[in-house]
Design goal:
This protein is α+β, with helices and mostly antiparallel strands and 164 residues long. The protein has helices at residues 18-44, 53-79, 143-155; strands at residues 11-14, 83-86, 90-94, 101-104, 109-111, 123-127, 132-136.
């Protein structure tokens, strides 16, 4: 299930996987090199010799490469279909499966990026007390705009009009 704009004051921010593909491009040569090292280790220490270095030089690099590749797959699967939506009444979040989470602005608890993480990997947290939603600049190119909209909506709660 997906959600899209239904009104003129609503915005939907989709995840951007550009940084993920860059990370994958950097990780791929290392994964290939680890597999090559493991293959060479398995050929250098045949099973007939019973040498314990076979596990260290053969299986360990292959295991590390499989773990790295699995981490990339899990990161992709968890982030590929995320969406954040804002409207005058709700903060919306869709993780990619199931129903979107609607949090009324009155119930939103917002923790913006910490000053010490602003330059590196900033992330923000939105919650209503039972649902906790963390979103990162790494995956949302409009991160600053989303944070600004949330902060503005929280600041304007006392007024009747929330401008998105």
């Amino acid at each position: 299930m997906d959600f899209a704009r239904t009104g003129p004051k609503e915005r939907v921010f989709k995840v951007s996987l550009r940084n993920f593909w860059l990370l994958s491009g950097i990780a791929t040569p290392f994964i290939v090199a680890l597999i090559g090292m493991g293959r060479f280790g398995l050929m250098a220490f045949p099973a007939e010799t019973g040498d314990p270095f076979r596990f260290l030089t053969g299986y360990l690099p292959i295991l590390v490469s499989v773990i790295c590749f699995g981490g990339l797959l899990i990161t992709f699967a968890r982030n590929a279909r995320r969406r954040i939506g804002v409207s005058p009444k709700y903060f919306l979040y869709l993780e990619g499966k199931g129903q979107p989470i609607h949090i009324r602005w009155e119930d939103v608890l917002y923790s913006g990026p910490r000053p010490d993480q602003r330059n590196l990997f900033p992330s923000a947290l939105v919650s209503d007390g039972k649902n906790f939603i963390r979103f990162e600049k790494f995956f949302f190119t409009d991160f600053e705009e989303i944070c600004e909209i949330i902060q503005t909506a929280k600041d304007n709660l006392n007024r009747n009009e929330i401008v998105i």
